[in-house]
Amino acid sequence: MPLHVKRLCLVFKIYKGVRMKRMFPKLTASLAVCSMLASASFAADVIKIGVQAPITGQYANEGQSIDNGVRLIVEQQNAKGGVLGKKIEVVTCDDQGAAQQAAICAKKLVNEGVKAVIGSYTSGATEAAQTTYFRAGVLQTSDGTSDSLIVHKYWTFFRNSFPNSAEAEYTAKYFVDGKQYKKIVVLSDYSSYSTDLADATVKALKAKNANIIYEGKIKSGTQNFTATLTKIKSMNPDVIYFSGYYTDGGLLRAQQMQLGIKADFVGGDSNDNPDYMKLAGDSAKGTLLINVPTPGILPYDIAKTFLVDYKAKFNMAPASIWSLMNVDGLRAILHVMEQSKSDDTKVIAEGLHALKDFPGITGPVTFREDGERIGGGYMTYEVQADKSYKIVYQ
């Protein structure tokens, strides 16, 4: 705030009072203006970063891990003086992983004046907020993997994970060339992520002339899947592939084993979560999970340092690779801000589109012109009796 305005506001405050308000109504209005100017002055010294994630609900451990990771990076950056000489402030909105709540979060975060939003975890929640951020010129990075997320080619959107189509190609190669499954079952739920991944996987399998004996859907959150599994048991499959989330995948695996279905159980990337192990119990042993490298085996020094810092701060490890990918989205934005010496979102977006092999926690970060992250390599992990992972295909 300019010095002369500060002095004027000080005079107004000295003479502020009930009697003065009655005598000088214009003075009261001036006080309000001073308050607004002060707020604007404070806001100008802060860069706000939004987090849109499921802080509560069935995916809460993923959402909380994303929020924790963002806040850790911001704390470390602020300790170094912030960015562009300004402190960073985190504003979190709980979208519960649901599209309707995500739309509400998008409006809230835009009104808060955030420059960028990290999230969300689910593709459905990410997509529900996309247009609002685009219209407001607010950057959005997400780990959402549905291929539909880049259809609009919004200049504001950047995917810091990899698309379902890439995972589907890997899965088909593993099933046909690696395991040589003869009878394949594909299960999904009704979410945009799960449906998109299942459709992409079926397409990739058919391109390799694989024998898919059953394609079905479950209703997420049902908890009892015995009817579907009983039908599948009569088909004597070699493998049950599930493209949904860990909250259902763990129960599916446990109930599969209870029914004595001897098929392999292969979970798509969103089954890679500690809560999958809790829900599946002893049945988790032998599960095959497909994902990019998990946090514990990332070979990068920056990843090892971040994991140590995260555990020291929160007394636990990140929930999964997804929170680290979201953190990389934030780190890339802060890097471009510093390099461009600008917090203008158009300038930052141009810098992100030109980013090449930025050293990320999850590996080199390079974005295509449509916001898609380039690269990524998948692995298949077999869950051991002690819930550790053994790499069996890559």
TrEMBL record:
Keywords: Amino-acid transport, Signal, Transport. Residues 1-43 form the signal peptide. CDD domains: PBP1_ABC_LIVBP-like. Residues 47-386 form the Leucine-binding protein domain. InterPro entries: Leu-bd, Leu_Ile_Val-bd, Peripla_BP_I. One of its GO terms (biological process) is amino acid transport. PANTHER family: AMINO ACID BINDING PROTEIN, LEU/ILE/VAL-BINDING ABC TRANSPORTER SUBUNIT. Belongs to the leucine-binding protein family. This is Amino acid ABC transporter, amino acid-binding protein LivJ/LivK-like. It comes from Sulfurospirillum multivorans (strain DM 12446 / JCM 15788 / NBRC 109480).
